[in-house]
Amino acid sequence: MSFTSIKLEHKQQVLHELRNIKQQFADRNWFPGTSGNLSMRVGDFTADQFHFAITASGKDKSVHTAEDFLFVDQSGAPAETTDLKPSAETLIHCEIYRLTGCGAVFHVHTIFNNLISEWFGENGAVPAQGIELIKAFNIWDENAEISIPILPNFAHIPSIAELVENVLDPAVPGILLRNHGIYAWGKNAFEAKKHLEAFEFIFEYLYRSLLLNKSNSN
């Protein structure tokens, strides 16, 4: 499906959902500075042709303007004439969409996801076990255990994007960049938000557990 054939009301609905999500995350201070990015797919999907809306680069996400988002294609290039620049990390979104066929990808920077990604960075993944919020990923095993991948935080974004396929786990809808932030995705905005909130709970839980264990050992 070409971008021009996608119905206007569908594009507007995607932008409306993204604005609502952006406001909720901004209220939680999940976009310090102008960091973070949000995207939602629009129209039909094939692995080599799809479009999505994504936050424009360098915008204050605590306010709403007519230039907060733009539409891009599967390569991250603008799908229509615009002066806006897509987020610097658009290529990572492209890879996640291509590999998963998901409907939304949300990326935020928080203190807890930065600290946990640095703590476990040399291991290449964050281990989590027996935490209730693991159920948010539709994993219902008793004392369930997951491993959340960590990728190096290269300044060269294409170098990060090319590593995504090697670590992506369909059962765990998230990837951390070390000392940077979390990418979480889902079949739609509701599911991606649910997954992101679960990851953030897990990261805070693990951080506070590490502090508690250290305190008890002293």
UniProtKB/TrEMBL annotation:
Cofactor note as given: Binds 1 zinc ion per subunit.
Pathway: Amino-acid biosynthesis; L-methionine biosynthesis via salvage pathway; L-methionine from S-methyl-5-thio-alpha-D-ribose 1-phosphate: step 2/6
Obligatory cofactor(s): Zn(2+)
Gene Ontology CC terms, in alphabetical order: cytoplasm
SMART domains: Aldolase_II
Residue intervals of the Class II aldolase/adducin N-terminal domain: 16-207
Pfam families: Aldolase_II (PF00596)
Keyword Amino-acid biosynthesis included in the entry's annotation: yes
GO biological process assignments: L-methionine salvage from methylthioadenosine
Record function comment: Catalyzes the dehydration of methylthioribulose-1-phosphate (MTRu-1-P) into 2,3-diketo-5-methylthiopentyl-1-phosphate (DK-MTP-1-P).
Protein name: Methylthioribulose-1-phosphate dehydratase
Source organism: Paenibacillus pini JCM 16418
